[in-house]
Design brief:
- Helix content is 43%, strand content 14%.
- By secondary structure, it is α/β, with parallel strands linked by helices.
- Helix 5 links the parallel strand 3 and strand 4.
- The longest helix has 21 residues.
- The model has no long low-confidence stretch (mean pLDDT 97).
- The protein binds pyridoxal-5'-phosphate (PLP).
- Pyridoxal-5'-phosphate binds next to helix 4.
- The site of pyridoxal-5'-phosphate has 14 residues, from helix 4.
- Belongs to the class-V pyridoxal-phosphate-dependent aminotransferase family.
- One of its GO terms (molecular function) is L-serine-pyruvate transaminase activity.
Length: 398
């Protein structure tokens, strides 16, 4: 017989957390508005009238944000990856032929998820650091016989933008495929029109473009995808939690599937409400203006961005770190001295600064660019900090 466990020695959370919250300017999670934080602290009955009213509004607001009239808009308890997996689990069948257009880590994840539901993914990798090439995709669609196409709108991992999403969606339709789009970092930061572009499933997370908390995500299925693949499905999807027909019970029929993440859904409600209040066109303009100003400021300092302008994502900016400078040291100094947090990248010698949701505010840009320039210089980079700050000011005030 061994002794039972005693309570571990634990320090209170405030001794672990920094004295002053860090400004989250990386590739997500991003800062959340006070209204979102307040909603996130509330627990209510997940099946009561109050929740039902909130859910109806979440769906209406989501339809606006996704630009769809589909009645198959739903949330999922889990990260953006759970929404990706839900789209795959319901639209990709065992043996389905899936064309996975990849240009980075997240688009490859969609291929990996397809493989796990026993489908047959074909990876069509785009040239390094480039957005989707429409001709390459069309050639492949002519050659192979595919059921589903997957792609991301923005590759957060290496900051590549797939600007020809609309054409790819049209091609997919022409070849009889459904198309699944990961818009985790881009939704509500740039145009994406689900119905007009004929996208069959759009996935998003909470913690990026929408400026809500991580762990509660949204997705929408088109009517066509619902009828063709979900409503008439004979076999059961592999994942019980991610089964869209079961989820529909909660999201459309006011009944039980699993206990919904009530606080997170209320937080999402507030995040979506702020998007509706701002309106999409204004929100797109704000993101574009802020991202372009930051990019101009970085370049005016003498730094190089990883991705050429025509393939560059605005929601997350990748900055090349000079060879003799340690990206980790820069991040550590920014955190410690300036209380600003940015991201490294999956093995690439770049640093990434996010421009999603609350990150795209002038006051956050000034603080971040100053912190970045100052820490880079301290870590050995040669750059002109005042020139960068002046350029940021100039572009923002234009
Ligand atoms: C962050 C991100 C994901 C994954 O989201 P998680 O919440 O980390 O699971 C997927 N796709 C893209 C494009 C992302 O930026």
């Amino acid at each position: 017989m061994s002794e039972s466990l005693s309570p571990p020695n634990i320090v209170p959370l405030e001794q672990i957390l920094p004295d002053e919250p860090l400004l989250m300017m990386g590739a997500g999670p991003v800062p959340i508005p006070q209204k979102v934080a307040a909603a996130n602290s509330i627990v209510i009955n997940h099946l009561g009238d109050t929740m039902n009213r909130a859910i109806e509004q979440v769906k209406d607001m989501s339809r606006y944000v996704f630009q769809t009239r589909s009645s198959h808009v739903m949330g999922v308890s889990g990260p953006g990856s759970a929404a990706m997996e839900m789209a795959i689990a319901n639209l990709v069948m065992p043996g389905s032929r899936v064309l996975c257009i990849t240009n980075g880590y997240f688009s490859q994840r969609l291929a990996e998820m397809s493989r796990r539901v026993r489908a047959e993914p074909t990876i069509l990798e785009m040239p390094k650091n480039q957005g989707v090439d429409v001709e390459l995709v069309e050639r492949e669609l002519q050659r192979g016989h595919y059921d589903v196409v997957t792609m991301v709108q923005g590759e957060t991992s290496n900051t590549v933008y797939n600007r020809h999403l609309e054409q790819i969606a049209q091609l997919a339709k022409r070849y009889g495929c459904l198309i699944i789009v990961d818009a985790v970092c881009t939704l509500s930061t740039m145009p994406l029109e689900m119905d007009n572009w004929q996208v069959d499933a759009i996935i998003t997370g909470g913690q990026k473009g929408l400026s809500s908390i991580p762990g509660v995500s949204l997705l929408a299925f088109s009517e066509e995808a619902w009828v063709r693949k979900i409503a008439n499905r004979q076999d059961l999807p592999y994942h019980w939690c991610l089964d869209a027909q079961l989820a529909d019970k909660f999201w459309n029929q006011k009944s039980y599937h699993y206990t919904a993440p009530v606080s997170g859904i209320l937080a999402l409600h507030e995040a979506l409400r702020l998007v509706c209040e701002e309106t999409l066109p204004n929100r797109f303009r704000r993101h574009l203006r802020c991202s372009e100003a930051l990019q101009a400021g970085l370049e005016a300092m003498g730094l190089d961005l990883l991705i050429e302008k025509q393939h560059r994502l605005n929601s997350v900016i990748g900055i090349i770190v000079p060879d003799h400078v340690s990206a980790d040291a820069v991040r550590a100094d920014m955190s410690c001295v300036h209380k600003v947090e940015i991201s490294g990248a999956f093995g690439l010698n770049i640093l990434r600064i996010g421009q999603m949701g609350e990150q795209s505010r002038a006051h956050n840009l000034f603080r971040t660019l100053h912190a970045f320039g100052s820490s880079m210089r301290k870590c050995g980079a040669k750059l002109d900090l005042p020139a960068g700050m002046a350029e940021l000011e100039r572009v923002l005030s234009n």
